[in-house]
Design goal:
eleven-stranded mixed sheet, 157 residues, mainly beta, 2 helices, Nucleoside Triphosphate Pyrophosphohydrolase
C-alpha cells in the first residue's frame, strides 16, 4: 500500500496533492460523488516517493479511465479550508493536460467506498456550479504563459 504525503495531528491536516486541468471544447472536467454536494478537481494525494507529475497521470487514469498526457505545470495552489471539523492546509500542483479531442471517458472510480463520477462543466457557466477550486473559472478565462501561484482561504465566511 502506498503512503500519501500528508500529516494529520489532532484537529489539523496537511496534504500534498496533484490535480489536473482538463479542457475539451469549452468544458472543464470536474469530479463529484454521491456523498458531497459540490464538484472538485480531478486528482489526489501524491504518494511518498512519487513525483507530482506521475501522481496526476495516475489519478487522472484512475478517475477517468483515460490516459491524458501532461502539457505543463500551470498552478501552485495553497488552499486553506475546513473539512470534517479539521483546519486543513493543502498544497496542490495543477497540471494542464493535453486535450484528447473528445470528452468520452470510461470512468467508474471508487474512493474510500464512495463512487466518483466525472462531469464536464461549461467554462462560461462555471459560476453556476458549486465547484472547487474557486479560482478555476477566472483562471480558465484568461491567457497564462507561466506558473501561477494562487492562495485561497475558504475558512473565512
Amino acid at each position: 500500500m502506498e503512503l500519501d504525503c500528508g500529516i494529520v495531528q489532532k484537529d489539523k491536516r496537511f496534504r500534498y496533492r496533484a490535480a489536473a486541468i482538463i479542457v475539451e471544447d469549452g468544458y472543464v472536467l470536474f469530479a463529484g460523488n454521491e456523498r458531497e454536494d459540490y464538484f472538485y478537481s480531478v486528482g489526489g494525494a501524491v504518494h511518498i516517493g512519487e513525483t507530482a507529475e506521475a501522481a496526476v497521470k495516475r489519478e487522472v487514469l484512475e478517475e477517468t479511465g483515460a490516459a491524458y498526457e501532461v502539457d505543463r505545470l500551470a498552478v501552485i495552489h495553497e488552499n486553506f479550508f475546513i473539512e470534517d471539523g479539521r483546519d486543513c492546509h493543502e498544497i496542490a500542483l495543477y497540471y494542464r493536460m493535453k486535450p484528447r479531442g473528445t470528452r468520452a471517458l470510461c470512468s467508474s472510480s471508487v474512493t474510500q467506498g464512495v463512487t466518483e463520477t466525472m462531469h464536464w462543466l461549461p467554462i462560461e457557466a462555471l459560476d453556476a456550479y458549486p465547484a472547487f477550486p474557486s479560482f478555476m473559472k477566472a483562471y480558465l478565462q484568461s491567457e497564462h504563459s507561466g506558473i501561477e501561484h494562487i492562495v485561497t482561504d475558504e475558512r473565512r465566511g
